# Entry
Amino acid sequence: MILRSLSLFFLFLIALSCTNPIPETPKAVLVIHGGAGWISKESVSDSMEQAYIKTLGEALIKGRAVIKDGGSSLDAVQLTIEHLEDSPLFNAGKGSVFTYNETNEMDSAIMDGATGGAGAASGITTIKNPIQVARAVLDHSVHVFLSGPGAEEFAIEQGLKQVDPSYFFTQKNYDRLKEVKVSTTMPSQEKLGTVGAVALDANGNLAAGTSTGGMTNKRYGRIGDVPVIGAGTYAENGVCGISATGHGEFFIRNVVAHDIAARIKYADHTIDKAATEVITELKEKGGAGGVIGLDSQGYVVMPFNTPGMFRGYISLDGSPVVAIYAED
# Structure
């Protein structure tokens, strides 16, 4: 009898140790970011702050509407990112920063957590919404990653809207390039670009997508982490969806998005623990930035190691929740 009681007690302890506690984080169907970096109340005017909050909120409502109507997480992610790409406020699409050669070269990626399928594109210069290129690669190509003129040729064949490169010109970003060129060094304290979204639909399918104009003054066809599946973008049903923003070289070297998923999948970490640890460790290695994510239950994470990150989430029936600064 004593031995049986002890056996039951040890079985209880083993079961308890294997239990993954519910994280004390909010739940949502959609989470977004609009870039991390040196963002502070002193650097953002009241009017600009309201513009950021308005645009992020609109994107959340648009994306959530897809989920509410029974649409897929992929469609919700794409529509949300298109809204952010159409705004000059963010370093993606219309608001993309300039390269050393005074051009705009954009990267994008999207991943389907249900199938493991992914689409990515880099060096986009004339397609209005780069996230559409990534989605077209996912849906209509045997490849995963297309680049440069080939990616644009494919996009045009798919009927995506092409624009003159002048569409992406913004005076603010052009002036910033001139400032950086005068300093002769890569900018060390920037709003580190990029927009992204992660969604969870009614069927439990996760999807993640990311779009960026890259880094001010980048040269030689530089490509960051955004279109590198597992670095800046990753989704896997039953695990999580992740979109990253920051200094891309560090996110590539540390395969950040997949590292978070692996800790959840193999180490039984909560998404909060996994994402927070990865972003903290990244800072220790010199990497600046952050991630957004949802796990299979819809728990939200938005950790970052910079002074600010444009971010927000929305539940199936709630109002948009938007934040900018570290203290928010």
